[in-house]
Specification:
The chain has about 550 residues and is α+β, with helices and mostly antiparallel strands. The chain is built from 19 helices and 9 strands. The longest helix is centred in the middle third of the chain and has 37 residues. Helix 6 runs antiparallel to helix 8. The N terminus is likely disordered. It starts with a helix and ends with a helix.
Length: about 550
């Protein structure tokens, strides 16, 4: 697989455009032949994990699992951009099926980031050959996303010469995707030196795979509890060969996989809009289509379409940064996941409302999408876990850089605003400055231990950083011109208004809600963050929403 000349020059990892298009064509064929609408609805209704279908998708004939495996181990060597595109498109078909494929990539990731050369050849080679379903076993009944709190133990087994020959594993894992069908798992367990990943094969004595859970959504996937009673694992199956590296490896995995969950949610959200928009154009109510009714379009469609476009901009930017080799992007992964999953969840909910009674009926699919997409706000770390991560690490980053982190975004947005007007860049910049001042206020008043305050900051941080990414995409498109550029420019203005208002509202909750600040202090702070100017982001907002509705519904 060769890279384009542009990617070669930039050093980006991944497929060339032609190869990526071939992967998408494969997904389209699956939609038409193997994963038809009728089959997907049947899997959901009967809670069927289509093992035979999944394994066929791993076969040499299709081989979608190859995308995330390095070429040297028999894969295609796809990058983050490629995997995001694949998961996004597959999620438009079925998020449950996509979860099964995501489990393969997730299970492979500890080997990719931490495995020895021999382990990669053996286990990644098995995945590439299509002979193995894989699961990632980290979550525990009492630990959830807190990997440092795992209780599953791996005690070393020592021979007569004092050499470690393997480990005895005892414990339990919960909510493991494809856990009931996996040929091997990558398991996180606590060794005397700290957490470590192990490869555990399904035939291992004492390894019990529990009954699949009955779930609210993603019913076409398998989610099973796993238990381990005196399970012996040879030392060769200690990933990386050195115990105690598990937390470091899991953090690398999270930084990568959370953007994949964001892409999955994005695809599901787009699928719900793909049903809602045509329905609204055809559904006549009180003499005219729903697509011509401003209350309907503005409440249930336009804002969601804007958020999903903003999510796409951020995901694309982050995936490119990953493909460039940039590391330590765990916070960015959390931002992508938090924003995209919550946006998609709301879009799917609005799709049910938009279809009225039909939205509640299985045949119309949106109720399934709504049930499916809900899990994306939970697995790989709940939205609240992401808020904790974002607020804590960005607060520390802000203090470490003496405010320069968000002030640099402010300056960047000011520069973009001077280059091209009417894209909301001024408001993104002001919001970044207001956020920076608010972080300082929270720090100086020792409010960082109040979790809700930190959640308010996390939401501000997320919107500001996603908004800046949206503005960058808008800038790039504006240089080339075209209809897409105009749509994104208007959408960027709308999202700038949302960002400005979220910042103002959250600042107000902090200033007024705590009851510790004097009125003059509040007034001075509001003036310093340019409250009145931020309120001006509402200017022509309804006109802009009308124009986006014209584009989405192809109104003349």
């Amino acid at each position: 697989m060769t890279l384009s000349e542009a990617d070669k020059k930039s050093g980006l990892k991944g497929l060339d455009a032609e190869s990526r298009e071939m992967v998408l064509e494969t997904v389209d064929r699956l939609r038409k032949r193997l994963l038809t609408r009728e089959k997907i609805l049947e899997y959901d209704k009967k809670e069927i994990f289509p093992e035979e279908t999944i394994r066929h998708m791993l076969s040499p004939e299709i081989g979608l699992q190859l995308l995330g495996i390095p070429e040297i181990y028999g894969g295609m060597g796809g990058g983050a951009r490629d995997i995001c595109v694949l998961t996004r498109e597959m999620s438009k078909i079925c998020l449950g099926i996509t979860t099964a494929f995501f489990a393969i990539q997730l299970g492979a990731d500890p080997l990719i980031v931490g495995g020895t050369e021999e382990q990669k050849k053996k286990w990644l080679g098995a995945i590439a050959s299509g002979s193995s379903l894989v699961a990632y076993a980290v979550t525990e009944p009492d630990a959830g996303s807190n990997v440092a709190a795992i209780k599953t133990k791996a005690d070393p087994v020592v021979n007569n010469e004092g050499k470690i020959t393997g480990y005895i594993i005892n414990g339990a894992k919960q909510f493991i995707s494809t856990g009931g069908y996996a040929d091997f798992i990558t398991l996180l367990a606590d060794t005397p030196e700290g957490p470590a990943f192990f490869v555990v094969e399904k035939e291992a004595e004492g390894f019990i795979r529990g009954k699949g859970e009955e779930k609210h959504g993603i019913r076409a996937s398998n989610t099973s509890p796993l238990s381990f009673t005196n399970v012996f694992v040879p030392v060769e199956n200690l990933i990386g060969g050195v115990p105690g590296q598990g937390l470091k490896q899991s953090n690398k995995v999270f930084g990568y996989t959370r953007v994949m969950v964001a892409a999955m949610a994005l695809g599901a959200g787009e699928a719900s809009l793909g049903i809602l928009i045509p329905y609204a154009r055809q559904r006549i109510q009180f003499g005219s289509p729903l697509s011509e009714k401003q209350g309907y379009t503005h409440k249930l469609v336009v804002s969601d379409a804007v958020r999903l476009e903003a999510a796409a901009a951020y995901i694309d930017e982050l995936a490119e940064r990953l493909d460039s080799g940039e590391e330590d992007l765990q916070v960015e992964g959390s931002i992508a996941k938090l924003f995209a999953t919550e946006a998609a969840n709301q879009a799917a909910d609005h799709a049910i409302q938009g279809l009225g009674g039909y939205g509640y009926i299985a045949e119309y699919e949106v109720e399934k999408i709504r049930r499916d997409v809900r899990i994306t706000t939970i697995y790989e770390g709940t939205s609240e876990i992401q808020q904790n991560i974002i607020s804590t690490f960005r607060w520390k980053k802000t203090r470490k850089t003496k405010g320069e982190y968000y002030l640099s975004i402010c300056k960047e947005m000011e520069k973009l605003d001077s280059s091209f007007k009417d894209a909301g860049c001024m408001y993104y910049g002001l919001a970044a400055k207001a956020l920076n001042d608010t972080i300082a206020l929270v720090h100086e008043n020792k409010l960082t231990r109040q979790q809700y305050i930190m959640f308010l900051l996390a939401d501000m941080m997320t919107h500001v950083e996603v908004g800046a990414s949206f503005a960058r995409k808008c800038s790039a498109l504006m240089k080339n011109g075209g209809k897409e550029a105009e749509k994104i420019r208007i959408m960027s203005r709308i999202f700038a208004n949302e960002t400005a208002q979220l910042v103002i509202n959250n600042v107000s909750r902090i200033l007024f809600g705590l009851g510790i600040f004097e009125k003059k202090k509040i007034n001075d702070f509001m003036q310093n963050i340019s409250y009145d100017t931020l309120m001006m982001s509402y200017m022509n907002i309804l006109v802009d929403m009308d124009r986006v509705a014209d584009i989405l519904f192809e109104r003349q």
